[in-house]
Specification:
By secondary structure, the protein is an alpha+beta fold. It has 9 helices and 8 strands.
Length: about 280
Amino acid sequence: MLNSKGIHPLQCSERYGKTVTALFRGIRIIDAVIAADHAPTVSELSRWLVVPKSTVHGLCNTLVELGLLVRHGDATFVVGPHVMRWANAFLAQTDLANEFTSLCERGEVSADETFTLSVLDGREVMYIACRNSSAPLGVTFRIGMRLPVEFPATGKAILSTMTDREVRDLLSDGWPKPLTRHSVTDIDDLLRELEETRRRGFSIDNGQIREGMYCYGVPIRDSSNRVVAGLAVSLLAMLANEQDVKRVTENLRLLAHHLSVRLGASVNGEAKLTQSAE
């Protein structure tokens, strides 16, 4: 059962047995700090993870020494700089992020528009590469940023390649809090959006993650034709006229095709969405 922070309690149960080690608990502490909507204290971490306060205190001290956590003057904790070294090492070994960066460096990704690349992690999308433009979108995308899969264009693009049954199963544990007044509010409305996405060939976030910003998304496939990510372009809602939308979505699908091909996908023309879901 999840607690109020959406974290699984860490318990010495039969499920984990003797594998519940200091390392495992340390990782859960870092996960809890990342998931919290504020810098937590030892007492809060102890309560959320159902681990003795003395144990959490000792582990936090060790994590601070290793640079994995930073202790503030009010005895709260935030993620430390050493975590970024791991994240950078992971991204450096990720073909998809490297290929996106290569396209940006060669000038194939327009510097006048914001492009984002994200992968599905549970029921969230996690951004693994971003190219922010100078346009005042009201939000700056960053690597490691997470959003509920239901709202962003990349999430909708990925979901559109699943069957309705698969989408319902993935999102069966409740609905996230809307990010704006335009955010889709239930599974049935989302499934209608996904059906439109399949017919249209790209997804649309019409201000669902940020008022005044429109995003358009398409899926990325690998050598086994499996969808591994979503690619999106963002622009101000006031610029989302028919001519500009046609231009940016055609460019977006071309970029997605290039990325998919570079990953070994066998695609004719451009990466295609699945047919009508069950």
